[in-house]
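Example complex used in Figure S2.
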Amino acid sequence: MSSRTNQSLSPMQAAWRRLMRQRMNAWALGFLITLVLLCFIGPELSPYDQSQQDLELKATDPSRAHWLGTDPLGRDMLTRILHGGRVSLEVGLLATAVAVIIGVLYGMISGLAGGRTDATMMRIVDILYAFPFINFVILLMAIVGREFWLIFVAIGAVEWLTMARVVRGQVLALKNLEFIIAARACGAGFWHIVWKHLLPNVMGPVIIYASLTVPGVMLLEAALSFLGLGIQPPDASWGVLIREGANSMESYPWLLLYPGIFFSTTLLALNLLGDGLRDAFDPKSMSQQ
Amino acid sequence: MIRFILSRIVQGIIVIFAVITITFALSKMVPGGSVRSERFISKEAQKAQDEYYGLDKPWLAQLGLQFKHYATLNLPESYHYKGRGVDEIIASGFPVSAAVGGAALLIALAIGVPLGALAALRPNTLEDRTSTLAATLGICAPSMVMGPLIALLFGLKLRWFNASGWFDASDWVLPALTLGIIYSAYIARLMRGSLRETLAQEFIRTARAKGASEASVVFLHAMKLASLPVLNFLGPAAAGLLTGSFIVETVFQLPGLGQFFVSAAVNKDIPLTIALSTFFAALIVSFNLLVDILQAALNPRIRLQA
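Predicted assembly (595 residues):
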């Protein structure tokens, strides 16, 4: 540890420096920011609507007018991919938010309560790990309907288990440390301690696991949409586009390739960034470097 | 040890009955009846049908009936495939899923373990970078992208195998390859991380100090401990693979369990849905138990507690 250079840095700043020292992480972050901007602004700038059909143009090659060509219904592929990306990213972020909220609440309560309550709550999590949750999600989507809010709530409701474990472990480690005891001795109330002392210290691991949850969640959404149970056409997500591409891949393989490349690159960037964040925050992996 | 196994079996049975209850409750959220078809049928016929499937009883009694079916292993009939028991349907789909999944598991282990071990043994070399990159790419090419691409390349362009369907003896190859590559990526990553961590531990230094050969250090000492996270991952993964991947079975149009699950959910075939969820849960529970026992055998520091 070079204590001299790190002296004036907050832990957050030090972690940020460690993150950016790896060039791959910087690339991944840059790519993701660009992608988010493209997906949220691009469809507005495009001269086409994502579901606008032009039956004169059936699955054309990339051209000046349509940069990534058109699909068999004459819809502009680039607009559809960017619009689909927006839907996929929205589901990814919202479902992760649901998972974070449930996981943090559950883990906090379990860790703070301690004793028998804690043991019971964690045993429940252990048991829940053995549940075929994917089956439940598929069942829910098939029978209740395929609405946007249901997709991310259902996915979020199954992805919180690891988050709860992480938060609980962190709370257990923190709650008897001196600064918490000192705060209590000064007469700080329960909520003050939770809000001002526990939550900020739990956020680091939460951010790491959230960043590792996003690609998993996006994968699940794509799988549901691929099976026809998620986002419904003519609306698009990357799962929908990949399914449409797979159906016509023999004649028009690029309809599968383009959305596939976008999806895979995004997953790659998210995974790299998640790993990078873990390395940057986790003292255990720091010592290995 | 025996107490541990017994308590886990009891816990597993609780899980299975909880799965039955949740699946049943979810399927009761279906608007309208589940056996009712869109076509008009007379009141008498509807009543007779409801009675036949026990749908005239209150929900709790229906749930009790489900429990009884599973406790006595006398499984009900499917709504959609009239006259066929759900166990019969599982028995027809499971061999397909298990053949593909078993082959995929072997492929995943055969690629993933050596790749990850090689990367861990030569950290920060070209081999390490290449294998890490390959593993990351495998994780980022999900089955819904990889599957169609493999079908396109080997099935439609090269014509080495059928692109879809379950007709020839070689039809397991492409779906197993798709799943195997993806799972090998996860295994390689886990293997690399845990072997690197193990090799840095003190008992490895002790083994080296007493003059053990490098091969014996790696294979006898380190691998035993380093394989624990991989085993942990393999438990649920094996259960998922053997019961069939929803995506891969859709891409390659295999008549396996994964496909049945989606169609049963869409067709509102409640008995089949419950049966498939239960079967899947039972497999997860048994594989997890198996993994726990194996882990205790590999790592003397793990004590099994009830």
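The radius of gyration of chain A is 23 Å. Residues 285-289 of chain A have pLDDT under 50 and may be disordered.
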